[in-house]
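F.,

This is the one I mentioned.
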């Protein structure tokens, strides 16, 4: 049995200004606060003597590797991301950053927002622009009916509204 795993499909490089700011804050917190604290703790643990059986030292080094790995990921990702801070030229159609209200066949409505893969939050209805539902909706206009094929079956949605302004009930 092989350990080969096919490469993951490339994630979109789009991000909202809020998402970019959140990633930048995480990077700064790790680099300026968390990493120096852990480095100091590792230095203090190393001063205690035998490192081979020193749990604080071993755990601290592991924590430092995890922090460094995340910092490296964030630096590379932040350099490549494209911040989308302008609405599209046709705000009546669904593109990146849109808040979309959908109504299914039973009359149930739901609101989703199409965001970058770094900022998805299912509890808020924020889905990745790379998600199958997003791909189905891209470029469609308000009032259009779309059929979305999922593993659980096919669902017919009507696009009730499309906006690029944050709805009042979503502001927090």
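My design for it:
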């Amino acid at each position: 049995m092989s350990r080969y795993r096919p490469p993951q499909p490339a994630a979109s490089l789009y991000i909202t200004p809020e998402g970019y700011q959140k990633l930048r804050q995480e990077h700064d917190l790790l680099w300026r606060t968390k990493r120096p604290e852990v480095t100091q703790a590792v230095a203090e643990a190393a001063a205690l003597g035998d490192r081979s059986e020193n749990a604080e030292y071993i755990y601290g080094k592991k924590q430092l590797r995890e922090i460094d790995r995340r910092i490296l990921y964030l630096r590379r990702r932040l350099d490549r991301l494209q911040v989308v801070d302008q609405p599209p030229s046709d705000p009546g159609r669904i593109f990146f950053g849109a808040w979309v209200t959908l109504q299914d066949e039973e009359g149930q409505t739901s609101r989703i927002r199409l965001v970058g893969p770094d900022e998805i939050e299912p509890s808020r209805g924020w889905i990745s622009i790379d998600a199958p539902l997003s791909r189905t909706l891209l470029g469609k206009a308000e009032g259009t009916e779309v059929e979305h094929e999922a593993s659980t079956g096919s669902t017919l949605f009507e696009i009730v509204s499309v906006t690029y302004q944050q709805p009042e009930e979503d502001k927090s």
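The mean pLDDT is 91.

Talk soon.
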